Amino acid sequence: MASSFDTGERATKITNEPQFIDTPEHPSAAALHAYLEEKRGTREMPDRADIRPSEIARFMPNIIIAEAVNGGEDFRTRLFGTALVELLGEERTGKLLSEYAEEATAFSSRNPEAVQRRWTYITQKAFFGRKPVFVKVPFAASGRLYLVGHCISAPLTAGGTEPAQTIGALFVSKVDPAGD
Hints:
Layout: E1 13-14, E2 19-21, H1 27-40, E3 63-69, E4 74-80, H2 82-88, H3 112-129, E5 133-141, E6 144-157, E7 163-174
Antiparallel strand pairs: 1-5, 2-5, 3-4, 3-7, 5-6, 6-7
């Protein structure tokens, strides 16, 4: 059975700077965004209670749900999908973003602080911006781009009107070597 990412090999390098884009390019990121927009309705943000795992079951392995700590200074990971664990090499459910370790199986930064800053920046951008953000992340090995990560991070309320959590996902696609 193919893995959730069907990568064939682990990523060994990533750029440190995420590329923010205006709209999701990956079909699964676009479908998750459409689902969240439907749940949002006329409100500024969807509420966590509106999200039904059974309705997004196909995305669950790629989902991360994080709860704001200290008003969004940090975030505690409430759910870290199995495909994310597989790709990044670390189970992060229950951890603060500030506790994330180096992504040794997927990244070559050898710098846990850079990993923490990247995840925190993307999460805070959605949380404080009060709207979804979309990110492309190139993965490379031996100096060649071979995967692209497509991320979405969106704020959620928790029974009120202020953001309390974020829901995000990472979907990976292979780069067509002929397109280099």
